[in-house]
From TrEMBL:
GO molecular function: carbohydrate derivative binding; DNA binding; DNA-binding transcription factor activity
Originating species: Allorhizobium terrae
Protein name per its UniProtKB record: MurR/RpiR family transcriptional regulator
GO BP term, pick one: carbohydrate derivative metabolic process
Keyword annotations from UniProtKB, A to Z: DNA-binding, Transcription, Transcription regulation
Length: 312
């Protein structure tokens, strides 16, 4: 049976606890830097605050925990995705490796992620996603934080097959995306992109757009992602990474594969590729358009032979 204290957050426990001056000093640091403390052993916290390790443990007991380990475990709750890179690096063997090994291991991890993404693909959901993209009146892409880069690639690809694709990420931040809510109508599609660490604004906006009547296609990492509950359909990418919150290459591979499927299903991939080539040719280094322009220039007067000139 749980006590009322068991249901309190760390900050609530600190408010209600009777703390000594040394304990209050620790509490102030915890309140200022909860995420940092969640990744710290007791020795590090003691050194930073300027107290002893036993004092840190007594502080944890004053909050109702059995010791610092239980206190830290409670503090970590809710920060799992944010702390994942820290914990993965902490768990890695402290052995000497050379950059070439890290480079090769990272490429191998990318390959495993892409293969696991392929194996886990739900073909029915993929078909629904492709149909939703091609039939949408308007497509909104929500990609905030690092997912803005993913959204940019998705916009670049889908722009070839849809007349109205909008990326809701600019210098204005989430407020720009929120302003777009007034234009949402049934028949619109929202593609929401969120990988660890999940941006709270992406989750909130996806819910509100779904409530406004739009279909939501989620691109995320697994079924426990907070984006899933607001999505009409979801495609997953495995994004394991030893050094970062996620593997960006896996997320980009999912987008690349999805847009290739859209291109094929549209029946217009050849036409789109031709139109794009015609459009960008003048801007490509070594393109032939400059040569065409030169040959098409009107001849100068000095270049035109006189009628009386000896042409022999």
């Amino acid at each position: 049976m749980t006590s009322p204290q068991d249901r309190m957050s760390i900050s609530q426990r600190i408010i209600h606890a009777t703390l000594s001056p040394a304990h209050r000093q620790i509490a102030d640091y915890v309140l200022d830097y909860p995420l940092r403390v969640a990744a710290m052993p007791a020795e590090d916290l003691a050194e930073i605050v300027g107290v002893s390790v036993p004092t840190v443990n007594r502080f944890a007991r004053a909050l109702g925990f059995s010791g610092y380990a239980q206190f830290r475990a409670d503090l970590v709750l809710g920060y799992e995705s944010a702390l994942a890179p820290v914990e993965k690096l902490r768990a890695k063997p402290q052995q000497s490796v050379v950059p070439a090994d890290v480079f090769a291991d990272t490429l191998a991890t990318m390959a495993r992620n892409v293969e696991r993404t392929r194996q886990a693909l739900d073909l029915d959901i993929l078909a629904q996603a492709v149909d939703a993209i091609l039939s949408a009146r308007r497509i909104y892409i929500i990609g905030l934080g690092s997912s803005a880069w993913h959204g940019g690639l998705l916009l670049r690809r889908l722009d070839l097959f849809s007349d109205d694709v909008r990326l809701l990420a600019n210098i204005e931040g989430a407020s720009f995306s929120a302003r777009s809510l007034r234009g949402i109508k049934p028949g619109d599609l929202v593609v929401a992109i969120a990988f660890p660490r999940y941006m709270a604004d992406t989750i909130t906006l996806s819910k509100r757009m779904a409530d406004a009547g739009a279909q939501v296609l989620a691109l995320t990492d697994n079924a426990s992602s907070p984006l899933v509950s607001h999505a009409t359909m979801t495609l997953f990418a495995h994004v394991e990474s030893a050094y970062f919150a996620n593997c960006e290459a896996s997320a980009l591979a999912l987008i690349e594969a999805l847009t290739a499927a859209v291109a094929h299903a549209s029946g217009r991939s050849m036409q789109a590729a031709t139109e794009l080539a015609d459009t960008v040719l003048p801007y490509l280094h070594g393109g032939h358009s400059n040569a065409f322009r030169a040959s098409a220039k009107p001849a100068l007067i000095d270049d035109i032979p006189d009628d009386d000139a000896d042409l022999s």
